[in-house]
Design brief:
The longest helix has 16 residues. The chain has a 7-stranded parallel beta sheet with strand order 3-2-1-4-5-7-12, sandwiched between helices. A two-stranded parallel ribbon has the order 6-15. Strands 8-11 form a two-stranded parallel sheet. 38% of the residues lie in helices and 21% in strands. The radius of gyration is 19 Å and the shape is globular. Helix 3 runs parallel beside helix 4. By secondary structure, it is α/β, with parallel strands linked by helices.
Length: 307
């Protein structure tokens, strides 16, 4: 299929690009500059230079595609939720536009929007895709965007929302920051560290995107996490034995963390136990189901990404 991808050089998007290319899809990827374009081309994608804040650059790349996957988010001061909503409107319009493609066109097009489990809020007991949203402040705008995508469905357009857990693998993300802090000798944990983080390995997450793109019946909301139900303290403890010097661990009271980190602190302190029954029903089975249980491997991945 011909698939338009945003965020192809980002943490999630780069893994999705690799999975789609391996699956034989023709991927057109929106990138910000020519350096990123070269990186995408080297990985088998077709880059289009533009950005989310420029609707014309989006429209140009989104024409004549069979599917659309949105993994980007513009977190600059001029970006944010308003820019994302405008970008989603452009992508939905492109997905709905009538085209004469003959036998090359699939029966249904699709659009996949990347949300996240933080829209669920505190969830100390297991919650699945049918749970009501109760987002923490840092993502309070996401449920509206989810609903915009879901409600855009038509008989010829599948609309999908993926809610990844905290992504791990490689050198980026929140877990990557833990590896960095531990390697530097001091890990700061927001709260008492007994809270559970829903987690998902980047390559396993990318596999779910590819499965959903290729399944002509898939639609609606899908959670994506390894269901390891790991506590933050256990993750930090599992990293320590593989470092030359055991790091100090400081538990930062939530009020102090808020003063330094703003609303992000509340997201890191969430206690969440999340289930992904709809993704599992597709046959999706994460290859990795634990950060703590794979700490040595993941630390080596992190170190390799820094060189």
């Amino acid at each position: 299929m011909r698939i338009f991808l945003t965020g192809a050089t980002g943490y999630i998007g780069s893994a999705v690009l690799d999975a789609l290319v391996r699956g034989g899809h023709e991927v057109t990827a929106l990138v910000r500059d020519h350096n990123k374009a070269a990186r995408v081309a080297a990985r088998g994608g077709k880059p289009v230079v533009g950005n989310l804040a420029d609707p014309n650059s989006l429209r140009a790349g989104a024409e004549a595609q069979d599917g659309y996957i949105h993994t980007a988010y513009d977190s600059t001061s001029s970006g944010g939720p308003k820019v994302e909503r405008a970008a989603l409107e452009v992508l939905v319009a492109a997905a709905k536009r009538r085209r004469t493609d003959g036998a090359k066109a699939p029966d249904k097009r699709f659009i996949i929007y990347t949300s996240g489990v933080w829209v669920l809020g505190r969830a100390p007991e297991p919650v699945a895709e049918d749970a009501p949203t109760n987002p923490v402040a840092v993502v309070e705008w996401r449920p509206e965007h989810e609903q915009f995508i879901i409600s855009a469905a038509t008989p010829r357009l599948r609309t999908i929302v993926i809610r990844p857990g905290i992504v791990y693998g490689g050198g980026h993300g929140i877990v990557g920051d833990l590896f960095k802090s531990a390697s530097n000798g001091l890990v700061r944990v927001v709260g008492d560290g007994t809270n559970h983080w829903p987690l998902v390995y980047d390559r396993d997450l990318a596999d779910l995107y590819a499965r959903l793109a290729g399944d002509n019946e898939a639609a609606g909301i899908y959670h994506a996490n390894d269901e390891g139900d790991e506590r933050v303290n256990d993750i930090v403890a599992a990293i320590s034995p593989y470092l030359p010097v055991r790091p100090d661990v400081r538990h930062v009271p939530i009020d102090e963390a808020r003063a330094k980190m703003g609303d992000f602190a509340d997201a890191l302190a969430l206690d969440q136990v999340v289930r992904s029954p709809r993704a599992r029903a597709l046959g999706w089975t994460p290859a990795l189901r634990s950060v703590a249980g794979n700490a040595a491997r993941l630390l080596e991945e992190w170190r390799a990404s820094r060189t």
